[in-house]
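User: What would this chain look like folded?
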Amino acid sequence: MTEISEQSVQVQDIMTSPVLSVKLSETVSQVLKLAKKKNVTGFPIVDDKNKVIGIVSTLDLITLMAVGKQHLKLGELPLAIKVDKEVLTLSPSSTTKEAIKVLIKNRVGRIIVIDKENKPCGIVTRKDLVNYFIDIYKLEK
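Assistant: Here's the prediction, encoded as structure tokens.
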């Protein structure tokens, strides 16, 4: 079995970059359409200076739409109605071991990678980690 050196592999080596972000003023419908078009399941939410202020997942938005009343036209509401202000972040130099610990401990699907100015520079998802392990263990032939 291959020995993994998590200390040498940094988040910046496996993250998806650039990261797609959205603004609070965008509607639920706009964000769901963007998720479909770009095949992503979550977004950091940024302010006008591109600093991270929240996070939203497509699961959150789907849940909102499914339990909502049809006459409320939830898709037209601003994204601000369904935002998680608790954002898990790492720096690009964090190790993959740290990323795995954060994902497992918090039972989340993504971590936003931020630069020194709190601006998103990437995202690490479960899929990124799956790809990392496939590469490390040479599972694809």
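The chain has a mean pLDDT of 87. If you want, I can go into more detail on any region.
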